[in-house]
TrEMBL record:
The keyword Cell membrane applies. Coiled coil: none annotated. The chain crosses the membrane at residues 29-51, 93-114, 126-146, 152-171, 192-211, 217-236, 248-269. Its main location: membrane. It comes from the Bacteria. Residues 1-26 are annotated as: Disordered. Keywords: Cell membrane, Membrane, Transmembrane, Transmembrane helix, Transport. It is a multi-pass membrane protein. This is Sulfonate transport system permease protein. The keyword Transmembrane helix applies.
Amino acid sequence: MTDTLDSPTAAQPADGAARPTERRTRRGVPGGGLLIGAIVPVLLLGLWWLVTEVTGTFTAIQLPAPQAVLTAGIGLFESGDLFEHVGISLQRVLIGFGIGAALGLALGSLLGLSSIADKLLNPTVGAFRAVPSLAWVPLLLLWVGIGEDSKVILIAIGAFFPVFTAIHSALRHVDAQLVEAGRAFGFHGIRLLGTVQLPAVVPSVFSGLRLGLAQAWLFLVAAELLAAAEGLGFLLTESQNNGRTDRLLLAIVLLALLGKLTDTLLGVLERKALKTWA
């Protein structure tokens, strides 16, 4: 009887085992992280309303009130222009990011795994990386024209370099003992890359992908500001020319929301990849 009472399984959990109440405490409130993250945007929205509607610090031309921006968004939604601008910009970013990220992964893997390729190509890639984004625009317009291709290529250029830099640097610093262990198990070439080396650099790869995605949105605005008839960048330019600051702010807010949404989706993929490979 004494042994039964003193047994950790009968009276209390064994050392290191979390009680049900402790597990609930550690999990916290469902959606708590989302609520905490919403604090600053809500405060900024309240400050925006305060300096426009209450104190009148800014005029309607300088900084329209939040409800004015919302009204402008409703007007564009009812006319169908909002879906057109958002849809074409999102399409350009996804296609350009996909192309740039794929090329960055391929070339970064090549230079990260091959010392000869690294010595041969890395100085040239580094030189192109230093070229400002807007410097490519006149050349692309001359070679490709003002159609969709030039915009997608410019976005792909923006997405390429962060992805390339991240995977190239990560693969160059993979633990040599880990690689040798993989080779000892008979892994070579593509099999070694997919089984040992890429799983070892998954966090760095997704860091590069998220930076590349952010760059893709930046390069989208550069492309649409100069040569576009639709899209959020075009909406920015048109609103500035027509004195519609409410629509201009609406375009900025939409770019921020779309950028955050796509980054969040990429973050979900990152967590799944980390569970699977890393």
